[in-house]
Design a protein that fits this description.
By secondary structure, this protein is of the alpha+beta class. The chain is about 40% helix and about 20% strand. The protein is built from 13 helices and 15 strands. Strands 8, 9, 10, 11 and 12 form a five-stranded antiparallel beta sheet that branches. Strands 4-5-6 form a three-stranded antiparallel beta sheet. α3 packs across α4 and α3 runs parallel beside α13. The longest helix has 24 residues. It is globular and about 60 Å long.
């Protein structure tokens, strides 16, 4: 069975069946269908209205003639999409009076982007007002912010997969995103336990000065995964990481794959592609001092988009300066290249199934 964050779907009672990639030229239609099928009736009208706004803002981004006019529409598209997602999950009955849940700030010497940080607030606030960012975090991970926290922009930027090498170029730094060659489901010969293995090319680590033990720690896997040996020849080429503690299987192993995937979902980054296997997975190896700033993939994209949208709204003259500065290529790529990735990833979250764009369309 191919790895997926959603490898199976509930068939009946407590039994699961394998599901495969869903192909869609228009991910919005997948999201719309998910809202129609899954959203609680009392929240459906609001979720559908949020979806319509999200789509209109997204189209405005594509129609914008200048780079500077895109970030604000992009953020409001994401924000409305996030509200629709949380409503569909039944997490809240309404987002009528919700706040962004983020506040953009600058530290001295007040250099835009370089000295910027985002204050994130727990939801609900002390005044019982929902905070969109924390609600999104809980919808994706099941966990909320325990307290307010300041995320530094320069520590969020390297967490974008598509722009990671542009960040490396800007910082003259080694790569932190390491491609995973395969993620495998395993079970013992009696079918009583099941676990995961991740396979990486060792050369991708060594050429960036990353040891295997460092990878485990910096990717946040050292508590749950360990390195295992296959054979001397293979071990020189491939690095194999395996779950330390398998999960018990009382029925069919296929009923447990969803649980296994969920265990690592928030520690894996992915890219949607139009060719098999349609998902490429990565581990992000953060330096120890930056690990408190590591967010799940969708949340880091959302946070950066909030910052860029805030600049566009309040200080539009600053965006051209950023676009022409050290991080310029990364920011431009983020604004122009990231939106469709975010949209397909969100369509997958809504449908709880991998969604990808088909490579060939027959007329």
């Amino acid at each position: 069975m191919d790895f997926s964050f959603w490898p199976a779907t509930l068939a009946h009672k407590n039994r699961y069946k394998v599901q495969h990639t869903l192909f869609a030229l228009d991910p919005w239609s997948i999201i719309e269908g998910s809202i129609s099928q899954k959203c609680p009736a009392a929240a459906k009208e609001e979720a559908q209205a949020c979806l319509r706004q999200a789509r209109d803002f997204f189209q405005a981004v594509n129609q914008a003639k200048t780079l500077e006019s895109r970030p604000l529409s992009l953020y409001y598209s994401y924000m409305n999409l996030v509200k629709a997602f949380c409503l569909t999950r039944g997490q809240q009955p309404t987002f009528d009076k919700a706040q962004h849940g983020l506040s953009e700030q600058l530290r001295a010497p007040n250099v835009e982007l370089v000295d910027a940080y985002l204050s994130a607030f727990p939801s609900p606030s002390k005044k019982q007002i929902l905070q969109n960012f924390d609600e999104f975090l809980r919808a994706v991970t099941g966990k909320s912010l325990p307290a307010s926290f300041d995320y530094e922009l320069t520590k969020l930027l390297p967490q974008t997969v598509s722009g990671h090498r542009l960040w490396c170029l800007a910082e003259n730094a080694d790569e932190r995103m390491f491609p995973v060659e395969s993620i495998q489901y395993w079970k013992d010969s009696q079918g009583k336990t099941a676990w995961l293995r991740m396979i990486l090319k060792t050369e991708n680590l060594t050429r960036h000065g990353m040891t295997r033990s460092q990878l485990l720690k910096r990717a946040g896997l050292n508590n749950d995964f360990r390195m295992v040996s296959q054979d001397p020849i293979t071990d020189k080429v491939l690095t194999t990481l395996e779950m330390k503690v398998p999960i018990p299987v009382t029925g069919y192993a296929s009923d447990k794959v969803q649980e296994l995937s969920k265990l690592i979902k928030d520690r894996i980054w992915s890219v949607v592609s139009t060719v098999p296997p349609y998902r490429k997975y990565y581990l992000y190896a953060s330096p120890p001092t930056e690990q408190p700033h590591v967010l799940p993939q969708l949340l880091s994209i959302y946070a950066i988009s909030y910052y860029l949208g805030s600049i566009t709204r309040y200080r539009p003259h600053q965006l051209p300066k950023i676009s022409q500065g050290t991080y310029g290529p990364l920011i431009q790529d983020f604004i122009t290249g990231q939106p469709m990735q975010f949209l397909y990833l969100m369509a997958s979250e809504f449908s709880e199934q991998d969604v990808a764009k088909p490579a060939i369309v027959l007329q």
